[in-house]
Amino acid sequence: MAILLRTENLTKVFRSGNSDLTVLDSLDLEIEAGEMIAVVGESGSGKSTLLHILGALDKPSTGEVYFDGKPYSRLSEAETDRLRNREFGFVWQLHCLLPEFTARENVMMPLLIRGRSKQEAGASAERLLERVGLRQRASHRAGELSGGEQQRVALARALVSDPKILMADEPTGNLDARTGEGTIQLMQQLHKEGRLTTVVVTHHPGLAQRCDRVLKLENGRLQSVSFSPTM
Length: 231
Hints:
This protein is α/β, with parallel strands linked by helices. The protein is 35% helix and 29% strand. The chain has 7 helices and 10 strands.
């Protein structure tokens, strides 16, 4: 399979008081199209920072990220915005839905930002909500939905732009065990049906075990593991 996303000598350093804190240390990572990868590690190890850099939401201190062979550092601000909006879908531990809008309107938002008509965006949102089992809840506001339903809406919103890569940061972190299991199964289904490349940061052993690869981030470095480590 082709390499869709890769990093080269990726380093991220934060200033902490009078010293520097290196959370990512010269990382070289290759992610093939169609892979589902879990990034695990202790809290504060830099997992979310790595995901943000891969998703062009943050910049490394040194090193480079390439999407489909193109380096992020050479993209203009407008090109970076288009990359995030068209090629990436994001899901967070906190669903970040707009509470004053309905499920349908929340899912429509990325397409409206892209300039699609309300009619076209609404039709696409309906299709995605049906895929996640929430078409009958499309007209409900976010606050009227359960936690699991809200996360399903967030998944639909992430995928409505037909991205190549789904990036998820602790997508089951705020869910109970049963609801979390349902979310994991749905993510697997959407990954396969959409022929996605998925990168997920997680503390959930069950989710990590179902991925093609598990990478543990420790002391700024990544190492592959063949089992779900203690997290």
